[in-house]
Automatic annotation (TrEMBL):
It comes from Rhodanobacter panaciterrae. SMART domains: LytTR (SM00850), REC (SM00448). Coiled coil: none annotated. One of its GO terms (molecular function) is DNA binding. Keywords: DNA-binding, Phosphoprotein, Two-component regulatory system. PANTHER family: REGULATOR OF RPOS, RESPONSE REGULATOR RECEIVER. Residues 6-118 form the Response regulatory domain. The gene is algR. This is DNA-binding response regulator.
């Protein structure tokens, strides 16, 4: 009896993970999902231990992005990247070993992907390093934010990205803080991360992105939770467990 094809789904948004799993159950009922992960570190661990035949990886995830997960994984698998960036995705993925899905995922597009994945089983070891490096370069060169258009009361203010030290979720808005004041925008953090330089801004919590150069101090509190203080910001920010690895050398 032929062993079932297995899959890993790595997507940090639970509703999108659930939706993809449901679509796959309909389009590929014999596929066995062996792991579902909400961040890149757990995805890499699951890939190493479960050795799936197929890996669905969100390009932007806490801890490690999908590109880095694929780069570090040691066992063979067919890789499907999930991305919200059309201009980043289109031509670079047409290389045989890698496929992509644009958010929101359409049934007809996933049907095509499933057909290709079925035809490539069993998965074989493919060196994806060069292609992943190319994709990472495209992402780095993607359009980035230079100005933030934000509201302060009835006033609209243009804030240079160089002045921003913190983006923080607050109910339906995102607080944009500089060293001297703050304003609010409607763009969620996940969308902001797509257009922020990952070497300049780090996500330290589900609700906070900080400018690395603005970090004044990092230390644990009495309960062992890691806290970050920023220049110009009075209150410390808690670092979630998914992002503690960023500060191991500090």
């Amino acid at each position: 009896m032929t062993a079932p094809v297995t899959a890993l789904i790595a997507e940090d948004e639970e509703p999108q993970r659930t939706e993809l799993r449901g679509m796959l159950a309909t389009l590929w009922p014999e596929l066995v999902v062996v792991a579902e992960c909400a961040d890149g570190i757990s995805a890499l661990d699951a890939w190493t231990t479960k050795k799936p035949d197929v890996a669905f990886l969100d390009i932007r995830m806490p801890g490690l992005g999908g590109l880095e997960v694929a780069r570090q994984a040691g066992s063979p698998a067919q890789v499907v990247f999930i991305t919200a960036h059309d201009e980043f995705a289109v031509k670079a993925f047409d290389a045989g070993a890698i496929d992509y899905l644009l958010k929101p995922i359409r049934t007809d597009r996933l049907t095509e992907t499933v057909a290709r994945l079925r035809s490539r089983q069993p998965a074989t070891q493919v060196d994806l390093t060069a292609l992943i490096d190319s994709l990472a370069g495209r992402l780095t060169r993607a359009e980035t934010i230079t100005w933030i258009t934000a509201s302060i009361g009835d006033t609209v203010r243009m804030i240079p990205i160089e002045d921003v030290v913190l983006f923080q979720s607050e109910e339906k808005y995102t607080r944009v803080a500089t060293a001297t004041d703050a304003a609010f925008i409607r763009t969620p953090l996940k969308d902001l991360m797509l257009k922020l330089d990952p070497e300049v801004f780090w996500r330290v919590h589900r609700n906070a992105i900080v400018r690395v150069s603005a970090i004044r101090q990092v230390k644990p509190d009495g309960d062992g939770r890691l806290l970050v203080w920023l220049h110009g910001i009075t209150e410390p920010l808690r670092v979630s467990d998914a992002f503690r690895h960023r500060f191991r050398a500090m």
